[in-house]
Write a structure and sequence with these properties.
Helices cover 75% and strands 0% of the residues. It contains seven helices and no strands.
Length: 222
């Protein structure tokens, strides 16, 4: 990986352009302005162009066009996504947009199925499995009762958070207030940790860009 000084030496134009765009993006701190909107449009346009090139060279060519060109009879099922792709292009014209409804419905159906499967097998079931922990100190030879304490926190946190969203207890007794309070506490701690992690990652990005600008400015003095 090249250092910033090596980038300045090998690619001076790209490095100075990156520094200029960084300053333009940070100009949004002073308020919305035309330069910031120009940088925003450049970013969106370059991202779309990059995604289009990657889709063409990594998906369409090797997985669709080349197999159909080599052996269309054996790879005839590939004509189905090809037809759906052409139907999706009809969405560009309002009078033909209805032709692409079947392609959109297929994309949404597959997307929902993948999302549900990912949430079930990637989040819910692993979380349930992680909640099933032992309260026997013998199962934590290195930590002992500290391991039991952590296991209790996992169990209480999971159960109280689930009960917090259970609204059919039939009244607000002392027990209901306790489980609501504990569940709210765990939720607040979790949201606070997520927010703190997000802030730390953004600060790390800011430090990286500021360091990049300082190196670029320092290169002016040789």
């Amino acid at each position: 990986m090249e250092t910033i000084r090596e980038l300045i030496t090998n690619e001076p134009l790209g490095t100075w352009l990156a520094a200029l765009l960084t300053i333009i993006v940070y100009s949004y701190l002073l308020g919305d302005n035309p330069l910031y909107r120009l940088a925003e449009h450049l970013f969106v346009g370059s991202a779309v162009g990059y995604a289009a090139v990657v889709a063409w060279h990594s998906v369409l060519m090797p997985r669709l066009i080349i197999p159909l060109a080599q052996d269309p009879y054996r790879n005839w099922p590939l004509f189905i996504p090809l037809a759906l792709g052409f139907l999706l292009l009809t969405k560009a014209k309002a009078s033909w947009a209805w032709l692409g409804n079947s392609a959109v419905a297929f994309i949404l159906g597959v997307g929902v199925a993948v999302a549900i499967g990912g949430a079930l097998f990637g989040s819910l079931l692993p979380q349930l499995k992680a909640t099933i922990v032992s309260l026997n100190p013998a199962h934590y030879p290195q930590r002992g009762w500290a391991g039991v304490r952590d296991a209790l926190i996992i169990i209480v946190g999971t159960i109280s958070t689930l009960l917090y969203f259970y609204f059919t207890t039939g009244g607000e007794g002392k027990l209901a207030k306790v489980r609501i309070g504990i569940g709210r506490l765990f939720i607040l701690v979790t949201f606070g940790a997520i927010f703190a992690n997000t802030v730390m990652s953004r600060i790390s990005l800011l430090i990286g860009r500021v360091r990049f600008l300082m190196e670029v400015v320092r290169s002016l003095g040789g």
